[in-house]
Amino acid sequence: MGAGHGHGHGAAQVTEHAGGRHRRRLGAAFVLIGSLFAVELAYGLLSGSLALLSDAGHMAADVVTLAAALVATKIAARRDTTGRRTYGSYRAEVFASGFAVLVMLGTAVYIVVEALGRIGADAEVSSRPMLVVGALGLVVNLAALALLRAGAAESLSVKGAYLEVLADTAGSVGVIAAGILVATTGRVLFDTVVALAIAVFVVVRALGLGRQVLAVLAQHAPAGLDVDAVAAELAAVPGVQDVHDLHLWTLTSGMNVATAHLVTTEQADAHAVLDRARELLRDRHAIAHATLQVEPADHEGCDEVGW
């Protein structure tokens, strides 16, 4: 690492990724949502309610998403025994979030197709199961949201699960509203309208999460980090004459990474420059893993790469 020989990384090393800190909460949410899915599917089939069935379908997506997040956080914590995964398996969490997006979009498409197929068709819907199961679903989803809320701010995979449960919470409210409307008016159309509204809500949440997943996989600079500002701060470190080949990206939730070449002045202490630059990135920008190459001003052959 250039002039970094002999500098330890113990204090700055990230020992656990964000998703791993919330595995127990993910597990508890998985049990809650899985149990509710079984109940909702059974009563959806008995009542004939499309709103209830669509919410059950979305609940199935929740179960899959939570299971994927649990598996991903487990995989991400494994040590690499092959020697080939030099960054470990942390990206498993991001792939799980991408899978959650696909499941959410697939669920929304299914809801829309079923809803459009019911327009103009005769259907019988029992409102009482809709109201009972909708109320039960609301309570369970609120409990799951409380479990996942803290982790959603730190972990992309937990955020995917949180958004799934949030959409289900809205779905439970929709099922209750549809049950009331069907019971008071006798018009089954309200059940179909609510199902379509749930589908739209799911798509909006899926697209938002999908953009974040693509930004990580495309190795964009982390949200909230200005590359030019970071370069200027590194250039202002005493002894630094120039900064080039600066790259910033996110490995997984809560784990930002940086590489850079620091050109030093003639009298600069390379070790001091390296320490100050690393402290700046860690303390001011939460970048715990930085690979910094220190180069004297008269060093030749280090041409900037075009990318």
Account of the protein in words:
Helix 2 (50-76) runs parallel beside helix 6 (189-217). The model is unreliable at 1-6 and 8-15 (pLDDT under 50). The radius of gyration is 25 Å and the shape is elongated. The protein contains eight helices and three strands. A hairpin with a 2-residue loop joins strand 1 and strand 2 (255-264). With 307 residues, it is mainly α. It has two domains: 19-217, Alpha-lytic protease prodomain-like; 221-296, Alpha-Beta Plaits. The chain has a three-stranded mixed sheet. GO terms for molecular function: zinc ion transmembrane transporter activity. Keywords: Ion transport, Membrane, Transmembrane, Transmembrane helix, Transport. It is a multi-pass membrane protein. The chain crosses the membrane at residues 26-46, 52-73, 94-117, 129-148, 160-182, 188-207. Residues 28-217 form the Cation efflux protein transmembrane domain.
